[in-house]
Amino acid sequence: MKQLRQAFRRVRALFQKEKLDQELDEEVRFHVQQQTEVNMQAGMNPEEARYAALRQFGWVESIKEKCRDQRGARWIEDLQSDVWFALRTMSKNRGFTAIAMVTLALGIGANTGIFSVVYTVLLKPLPFENAGSLVWLREVDVPKDYASHVSPALFLDLRQQAKSYVDVAAMMYASYDLIGKDFAESIQGLRMSASSFPLLRIKPLLGRAILPEDEKPGQEKVVLMSHGLWLRRFGGDTNLIGKTITLNDAPHTVVGIMPPHMRFFSFAGRCDLWQPYVPEEQYLNGEYKRQFRHLWVIGALRREINRIQAQAEASAFAMQFERSDPKVCTGWTIKLVPVRSLYFGPELQKSLLVLLGAVGLVLFIVCANVANLLLARASTRRREVTVRVALGASRGRLVRQFLTESVVLALTGALLGIIIMWWTISLVKPLMPPTLPGGTNIDVDVALLLISSSLALLTGIGIGLLPACQSSRPHLAETLKEGGGQTIRGGGRSFIGNLLISSEVALTMVLLVGAGLLVHSVMRMLRVDLGFDPTRLMSTTVKLSWNRYQESARRQDFYLQALKRIKVLPGVESTAASFGGLGSSFAVEGRPEPVMLGIIECTGGPYDYLRAMRIPLLQGRYFSDDDLRGDTTVILVTELTARRLWPGEHPIGKRIRQDSKDSSGKTVELPWLIVIGVVKDTKQWIASSDPYMCFYVPLGRLSGLAPFQVDFVVRTFTDPLVLAKLIRAEVESLDRSLPVREFTTFESQLAETRAGPRLYMTLLTVFAMIALVLAIVGLYGVLSYFVVQRTREIGLRMALGATRRMVLWTVVKQGLVWTSVGLALGLAATLGLTRFISSQLYNVKPTDPATFVIVALLLACMAFVACLIPALQATKIDPMTALRYE
Predict the structure, then answer these.
(1) Domain-by-domain residue ranges, the chain?
(2) pTM of the complete model
(3) 3-state DSSP call for residue 337?
(4) Which of 95, 172, 180, 353 is such that its CA lies 20 to 30 A from the CA of 767?
(5) Tens of pLDDT along 597-638?
């Protein structure tokens, strides 16, 4: 009976609190009343009778449900009221709102923009249906920590014996000369195994893919064409399938057209042709068959096999090869790498993660700054909060009001941050590889906007939680006694604000040191001595046909005729040709061990390559006309080569000889090469910190044969690209079927090499400068609040005899103490974090002391200025006015 009475009281309380009696249907209420009277006549007391009547008509549960519905509706109404109140408050404090919105827009927009790029690189699915099961196989020299490609012999062994893969595919870079009726073009392509297309699940737009029978020796040569080349050179002719085109002076049948925007892997650049991969016999047999590693190999793991199991099988394969061929395979193993790294290398992934961490630090600084602003603003609303509490507002209701205001502020800032997000994405896009797979683009989609909204929501909660918790516990008696709303309390707020400022200073130091190291690195990169003059210098590659230029004399004559025609063009200062050979073993006179030297064959005489490149001569002389003929072959060595081969000796007149063996393995003594000069080391690729050992020899003199492919270099008096078309026409006039590749300037090549580090430096510097401004503004705001908060105290001190200098030092000391704490924390954090950008540095150590000292001094000076302004304001306080200050 007692429980029944309690239940009825709860129902009656619901009726009274929610006023649900008024919502009951009049007819139902009449029946409930009648049933209540019947129950009372049966001996029930009024409460029991009414509860039983309600149970009979099913109104107890419906009442509870209506209460829940009304509570939810009231919660939504309260939330709407809180939002409108927040908007009205923001409109009344426009200065505060504008500063907070811009600050939040910087943090949220930059974070979302960088995250969109990181999502593309690390998280976005690749445009293959089975991308999750694809792995990239690499051969790794463990002692040297050097990763290479896969040998054809290993590829065939894996395809026949490995049990972890559904299939294995191989591909390699190839270049082709496409000869048409009225055009000749040098294009890039891939030689791919037939298994590549089903493995990657790629289907041609027209025709068929490469079939296994196309890989058999002696079969008709077939080729697939890119959609762009099909439109550009053949006008989109659908009848091209089955027809023959000329590639490298050989007929090839077009069997398919690839879909538009089809890209495979960024290592191949723009791919216009796909041809079957047929392993050459020389790479499959012989003593060093496993030493020729030039294939990109991709495998699709079986569904029941994970990467760890596949890696174990690959390691077992490597051990088996080492036992069977220890001379070539000792120290080598096989490593499985996610196929995503073919698109985005580990260095790019690491760089983007560092940028994401940098903007994350900026967001933290933004949150700390806005939280400080909200804390200061909350202190001016203490009387308002106290009155609300006195009128019955709960602490939860106050916290919700403050959180609503901060979330609305953050969401509004996020809308403005969309502009910052677009700007950040446009800045980071040049960091991406020039050729991305189809569908892998950096775009702003719905998911990204949801992420931005979520980030804004979390930021709003983060910046509002601390002011909400602190402001929801007012001191009623003290606050209600205050006349103007000012209070001398707030030590907790000051401590929290100072702690946030120290954190801002520490994180700003991390960003500034990282940016300073990159600036130092790029400056060194720009000042590096290349060993040649890249200004107004351009180059192109000329490749002669094997069938039409079998005689070496004809090839040599073609090069000389082309150079002669280019030299007389108006605007051309000098021209020459060169061919960079591979490193080879050379015997040095007077030394027992052979050395590996690089070979650069170049023209001499009137078309001297060294003079055209403006490579300084350090000792001896350049090539002359007499050096191009005769029995003696002369060479010029680089400074590094001379220093290492003949340390402390005069290199002129020294001799080296190329090591060679005949078919029986016996050493063949070739003629000596005589050093006639020493030239400066060159660095065409800035990424290599050290030049390699090499020498220059007149074109064709080393082997007695002119090469089939050379690089023409042309130095002009004006913009080189203006003359590119004229030069191309002169070369093609000697052979209409000869494709001449595009001209590229050395300055553009250097700019492209430096573009990544320079952009990386720019982004990190921008983020560091934003962090610096925010930290200094935050410090200024905290100290300004400190001065306002202690106006009466400062006035009282001045009235009791404190000098303006003492007041100045009191305020400045307050800021410098917490700045010093931040600098100490920042130094410790920086020493641990700068190693993450070490791969982006050029000839600069991650612990460069000069950078640390400069950054620390810059932060200290800026902090001193930020402290000095409020301190000077404090010295201008009138004691009489301050004592009346409330």
Answers:
(1) 2-72, 93-126+346-487, 131-338, 496-533+744-886, 545-737
(2) 0.70
(3) strand
(4) 95
(5) 888 888 888 888 999 999 999 999 998 888 877 778 899 999
